[in-house]
Amino acid sequence: MEKIAMIGGGSWATALAKILSENGARVGWWMRSKDDVQHLQRTRHNRRYLSSVAFDLTRIFPSSDLDAVVKEADWLVLAVPAAFVKDVLDKLDRDTLRHKRIITAIKGMIPGKNILVTDYVAERFRLPHAQLGVVAGPCHAEEVALEKQSYLTIGSPSPELAEDFCRLLRNRYVKAHPMDDLDGIEYCAVMKNIIALTSGIAHGLGYGDNFQAVLVSNAVQEMRRFVHALNPQPRDLSASAYLGDLLVTAYSQFSRNRTFGNMIGRGYSVKSAQMEMNMVAEGYYAVKSIHELNKKLLVPMPITSAAYHILYEKISPAVEIELLKEKFK
Ligand SMILES: NC(=O)c1ccc[n+]([C@@H]2O[C@H](COP(=O)([O-])OP(=O)(O)OC[C@H]3O[C@@H](n4cnc5c(N)ncnc54)[C@H](O)[C@@H]3O)[C@@H](O)[C@H]2O)c1
Ligand SMILES: O=P(O)(O)OC[C@H](O)CO
Asked: Is domain 3-180 annotated with CATH 3.40.50.720?
């Protein structure tokens, strides 16, 4: 039986814990809140996220003791929002992860450091990237809870690691395939959140489907320019790990980033939009990281710049989207 440490108590951790435990893995499940752990042990449900999912307590082992959960596992799955992952990982001893395989399910960067989560893990724990992988693809936790057909991509420079983790995920409603483009997948997953957020802003301002389709088309070009500047190698951005993920986030009713953007477009402040949501819109943090990273690269990124001006410089969303409108073809 594969032993997994699931790190995080949010929607995506809950969805992955469901898939992995129902496939037969033993899932030690770390959550910050002792009350949430006790509730899960008592009722078999995560009371805060995907609360309809009932867990088998002979397969999942909730705990708020991070060291104990990590110690017992062969695999570590990181599923806390990027803004908090450094705080969590810095609690662990540098040698703890030496013989473990690490999968990040996070679609964000380390704020302040502006580096990918895999790069932070490799640096902090002195691990080769071949010990790391990323879960990507268009997949909302809410649809996993409903067992709707979904597709995941495991990116890793190690084909063996990627295929082993795909095997742990595949089931009646999840198809998983390996890819070797770790950086490209991770950067695109970060960027699609910014695009979805901007798409939500435009929607909140009253722009329609016609504009959104042009925004998303221009976004693909922006993603291509940026990812190529950071990591030039041939990649087909129409693959589901890139374009598929952008589309689901930009169009779905379940999207945190689009919902957050929609509120901003309707006139909410960042603080009030964040308070209204029980969930984290990664795009808010990603905008700052990508904007800062691009100060050196100087890649033309009109959508990211517009989102940055709106969220961090308090420029009116209506003005920024009006300016963006003139740049699109
Ligand atoms: N939800 C999805 O469908 C989905 C799918 C793929 C990837 N992801 C990625 O998974 C990661 C986790 O997102 P999610 O959707 O599960 O989160 P979520 O929005 O459902 O939940 C928020 C999480 O943040 C945690 N949190 C809030 N404040 C915190 C703090 N101060 N310190 C530590 N943790 C705190 C909460 O406990 C909770 O676990 C993100 O990077 C997201 O992009 C999510
Ligand atoms: O659509 P969001 O903003 O909730 O992000 C969730 C996932 O990344 C979708 O694959």
From this structure: yes
Model pLDDT for residues 128-164, shown as the tens digit of each residue: 999 999 999 999 999 999 999 999 999 999 999 999 9
CATH 3.40.50.720, the chain: domain bounds: 3-180
212-252 confidence digits (pLDDT tens) = 999 999 999 999 999 999 999 999 999 999 999 999 999 99
Q: Is 192 considered catalytic here?
A: yes
Q: Report residue 65 CA to chain centroid gap.
A: 24
**Centroid of ligand 2 to alpha carbon of 231 (angstroms):** 23
| Residue 249 Cβ < 6 Å to ligand 2 | yes
Superfamily holding 184-325: N-(1-d-carboxylethyl)-l-norvaline Dehydrogenase; domain 2 (1.10.1040.10)
Confirm or reject: Cβ of 153 under 6 Å from ligand 2. no
Determine the Cα–Cα distance for residues 291 and 309; give it in Å rounded to an integer: 10
Which positions ≥6 away from 61 have C-beta within 8 Å? Answer: 26, 27, 28, 29, 69
**Whether pLDDT at 278 is above 90:** no
- ipTM of the complex, rounded to two decimals: 0.97
Q: How far is the CA of 325 from the centre of ligand 1 (A)?
A: 32
Q: Whose CA is nearest to atom 1 of ligand 1?
A: 12
Give the C-alpha separation, 159 to 161, whole Å: 6
Range(s) within the chain of domains with CATH label 1.10.1040.10? 184-325
Residue numbers belonging to the annotated binding site: 11-12, 32, 49, 84, 107, 137, 141, 192, 245, 255-257, 280, 282
Of 309, 283, 302, 288, nearest in space to 221 by CA: 302
Ligand 1 and 10: CB distance under 6 A? yes
pLDDT greater than 90 at residue 74: yes
